[in-house]
Amino acid sequence: MQLAPLSYAAAGAIADCFPQDWTMGVLALKLMHLLVMVTPRREGRPPPDPDSIQAHFEALQQGGLRNLDFNRAVTKIVMPVMMHLATCLAVPFVVSRGVLPLMGLPAQALQYANLYAYQIFYGMVLLYKGSRRLHQWALQLHNTIRDDKYLVGRQLNNFELQQRQEREQEQQRQQQQQQQRAEEEQTRLVSEQQQQQQQ
Predict the structure, then answer these.
(1) Residue 174 has pLDDT above 80, yes or no
(2) What are the backbone angles phi and psi of residue 156, rounded to the nearest 5°?
(3) Are 120 and 92 in contact (CB under 8 A)?
(4) What are the b/e assignments for 25-42, b being 16+ CB within 10 Å?
(5) Which DSSP category does 158 fall into?
(6) Is 105 within 8 Å of 88 (Cβ atoms)?
(7) % of the chain at pLDDT higher than 70
(8) CB 72 within 8 Å of CB 59
């Protein structure tokens, strides 16, 4: 169905070829396995999450065929992949074959929808994933710049807040000094008045 726009005209009928679809599915599975297992690990990076698909692949390969954990292979590898594939196949099919005909669209528009439903859906998924990845990168860049500017050792310092607090403390010290000087001046005047009265 993904290659249908390359093989059929918009006005032609789409014929499903199950051996071709099965072969494409096997190739997609092999490609996913290569992408998961051949991806090099960078030095200094932590090991993969124990619940990630890469960790489960490595555990199954280390166990071999004799010690194959069938339950783990089905629940942690096969079922998540099958759920994603079922979602990718079912959502465009239901929208193009079930929702759009109820909207009263013409036959030619429905034919184009049946032909390009999967490509539009995959494009929307890629756009969503790409926007999320860009948002994560932008957030990491923001945090890195913030840490370079404000992080001293292991303590996050807000220099602007510290400067404002220092200015407030300086103003309080000046006010206290002025009060002390005023009190000293008042005591001096009182003592001078007492001396004058005694004389």
Answers:
(1) yes
(2) -85, 115
(3) yes
(4) eeeeeeeeeeebeeeeee
(5) -
(6) no
(7) 73
(8) yes
**Helix (H) or strand (E) segment spanning residue 36:** helix 18-37
Cβ burial of 56 (10 Å; 0-12, 13-18, 19+) is buried
* Statement: residue 19 has pLDDT above 80: no
Euclidean distance between CA atoms 106 and 134, whole angstroms: 38
Q: What is the pTM of this model?
A: 0.50
**What is the mean predicted confidence (pLDDT) over 45-63?**
68
pLDDT given for residue 124 in this prediction: 92
Q: Kindly state the average pLDDT of the residues 9-33.
A: 65
* Calpha distance 131→125 (Å, rounded): 10
CB 8 within 8 A of CB 115: yes
Count the Cβ atoms, other than its own, within 10 Å of residue 111: 19
* Cβ contacts of 120 within 8 Å, gap of 6 or more: 92
Answer left, alpha or beta for residue 48, where phi above 0 means left and psi between -120 and 50 means alpha. beta
